[in-house]
Design a protein that fits this description.
Structural class: alpha/beta
Order of helices and strands: EHHHEEEHEHEHHEHEEHEHEHEHEHHHH
Strand order of the largest sheet: 10-9-8-7-11-12-13
Oligomer: single chain
Strand content: 15-25%
Number of strands: 13
Helix content: 40-55%
CATH superfamily of the largest domain: Leucine Dehydrogenase, chain A, domain 1
CATH architecture of the largest domain: 3-Layer(aba) Sandwich
CATH topology of the largest domain: Rossmann fold
Number of helices: 16
CATH class of the largest domain: Alpha Beta
Largest sheet: 7 strands, mixed
Length: 432
C-alpha cells in the first residue's frame, strides 16, 4: 500500500487535467453539452470531475535482474449508476489526463447504451513491445495488487485496451481471486473463454463498428454490398471491423497501422492481408496493394471512413478535406473540436460518434459480467445478436433525439449520456 496515492480533486488537480489536450477536449465537449442541457451548476460540477484518481508506482524485477519502476493510473468517473467499467492500456505515452478523459467518455457511453455502469479507465506508462511476457505478467500482477482495495465486481471492472489482451485480464483475475481466496471471474471482462470469458467479446467492438456502418449506409440509401471503406488502425478493433465489413461484401480500399498504409482501389484481399500481418507484424510490404502515405489515405474517396487508432487524428485541416460519406469513430476521441465544427458546418458527412460507434466492446463486457454473476453462458451467435439489438436501439434513439432537438449526432449522443447521469445524481442527492 506504500505506493498507493489517492488524489482528490482540488484546484491544482483541475488545472493539471485541463492542461492535458485530451482531457481539455473531453471537458470542452462536456461544457458545450451542459450548456445545451442547461444543467444546474451544482449537478454540472459533480458530473464533470472524476470520483477517484488513483496513482500507483510499480516496481518490477526485469528479466536482466534490475528493478524498474513504472507508473500506473486508474480513474473512476462516478459510481452513481453502478460500478465503473473501462479498459486498462499499456502504452509508453499514457498520461493521467488521457486516462481521465477516456474514463469520462466511458461514463457517457455506458449511459447512452443503458448499461448500469459508470466510466473507468486505467493505464500504465510502458512499452509492451519491448517487454517479455514474464515482465508484463509481473507488471500486471503488481498493478492489480496495488489497486485491489479500490476494485471489485461491484466497484470497478477492468477490460483489455491498447497494448493489453485477454491474457492480461487472466493475470488480474488470478491475482484478485488469490487475494479473495475464491474464484472471482466477474472482476474483469475480456478474459479467456476458459476462465468464463464471453464468446464474441474479442470481436465485439469491431463487429459493432461494422454493424453500425451498415445501418448508416441504409439510412443514406447506399447498398452495403460493394460499399467502400477505409480503416485507420489494424489492431483488435480495426482488424475485426475490416473482417466483418468484408463478410458483408464491402470493399476495403485502404488499411493502415504503425508500419504504414496499403491501398487498393478495387478492394484489398482481407484474408491475405491478415495472413501477411500475422507473418510480418504490419501491413507494410503487402503485395496486394500499393503503399500510400497514411495521412493521404484518410483523404481518399470512400463511403465509410473508420479511424480506429488513437485520439485527435481527425484535425480541422483534415476534416475540411474528407471525402467520406460516413465517419465511423471506432477510436475514442479521434475527432478534435475544431474538426467537429467543420464537419457540422459541412453537413455532408454522417457521423457515428465514438461513444456509440465503439460501444460494442463495453456492451459485450456487460454481457460477460452478467453471465459471470449468474454462472451462466451464451453462445457467440446469441451474444452478437443481443449486441446488434442494443446497438440498433441506441442508434435509432440517437437519430430521433437529433431530429427532435435539431442537433448534431455528437451533441445528441453526449447529451443523452450526460443527461442520464445528471438525472441520477440529482435524484440521489448529495450526501452531507
Amino acid at each position: 500500500m506504500k505506493s498507493l496515492i489517492l488524489a482528490y480533486i482540488d484546484l491544482n488537480m483541475k488545472e493539471d487535467l485541463l492542461n492535458d489536450p485530451v482531457f481539455s477536449m473531453a471537458a470542452g465537449q462536456f461544457d458545450r453539452v451542459a450548456d445545451f442541457l442547461k444543467l444546474d451548476d451544482r449537478v454540472r460540477e459533480r458530473c464533470k470531475w472524476p470520483k477517484r484518481i488513483i496513482t500507483v508506482s510499480l516496481p518490477v524485477t526485469m528479466d536482466d535482474g534490475r528493478t524498474e519502476v513504472f507508473f500506473g493510473y486508474r480513474v473512476q468517473h462516478h459510481l452513481s449508476r453502478g460500478p465503473v467499467k473501462g479498459g486498462l492500456r499499456f502504452h509508453p505515452k499514457v498520461k493521467l489526463g488521457e486516462v481521465a478523459a477516456l474514463a469520462m467518455w466511458m461514463n457517457w457511453k455506458c449511459a447512452l447504451m443503458g448499461l448500469p455502469y459508470g466510466g473507468g479507465k486505467g493505464g500504465i506508462a510502458c512499452n509492451p513491445l519491448e517487454m517479455s511476457m514474464g515482465e508484463q505478467e509481473r507488471l500486471t500482477r503488481r498493478f492489480a495488487q496495488e489497486i485491489a482495495p479500490f476494485i471489485g465486481p461491484e466497484i470497478d471492472v477492468m477490460a483489455p485496451d491498447v497494448g493489453t489482451t485477454a491474457q492480461h485480464m487472466a493475470w488480474i483475475l488470478d491475482t484478485y481471486s488469490t487475494r479473495e481466496g475464491r474464484f472471482v471471474p466477474e472482476i474483469v471482462t475480456g478474459k479467456p473463454v476458459v476462465l468464463q470469458g464471453s464468446e464474441g467479446r474479442t470481436q465485439a467492438t469491431g463487429h459493432g463498428v461494422a454493424f453500425l456502418a451498415t445501418r448508416a449506409l441504409n439510412k443514406l440509401g447506399i447498398l452495403v454490398e460493394g460499399a467502400t471503406a477505409i480503416v485507420q488502425g489494424f489492431g483488435n478493433v480495426g482488424s475485426h471491423t475490416v473482417e466483418t465489413m468484408d463478410s458483408y461484401g464491402m470493399k476495403i480500399r485502404g488499411v493502415s497501422d504503425i508500419s504504414g498504409a496499403v491501398w487498393n482501389e478495387q478492394g484489398l484481399d482481407v484474408a491475405a492481408l491478415k495472413a501477411h500481418l500475422a507473418k510480418t507484424g504490419g501491413v507494410a510490404g503487402f503485395g496486394g496493394g500499393e503503399m500510400i502515405d497514411p495521412d493521404e489515405m484518410l483523404l481518399q474517396e470512400c463511403d465509410v471512413l473508420v479511424p480506429a487508432a488513437f485520439e485527435r487524428v481527425i484535425t480541422g485541416e483534415i476534416a475540411a478535406k474528407l471525402r467520406c460519406k460516413i465517419l465511423a469513430e471506432a477510436a475514442n476521441g479521434p475527432t478534435t473540436q475544431s474538426a467537429d465544427a467543420i464537419i457540422e458546418e459541412r453537413d455532408d458527412i454522417f457521423l457515428i460518434p465514438d461513444i456509440l460507434c465503439n460501444a460494442g466492446g463495453v456492451t459485450v463486457s456487460y454481457f460477460e459480467w452478467v453471465q459471470n454473476l449468474q454462472r451462466f453462458s451464451w453462445t457467440k451467435a446469441e451474444v452478437l445478436a443481443k449486441l446488434e439489438t442494443k446497438l440498433n436501439e441506441a442508434f435509432e434513439n440517437l437519430l430521433f433525439f437529433c431530429a427532435e432537438h435539431k442537433c448534431s449526432h455528437r451533441l445528441g449522443a453526449l447529451a443523452t449520456g450526460i443527461d442520464t447521469v445528471a438525472k441520477v445524481k440529482k435524484t440521489r442527492g448529495l450526501f452531507p
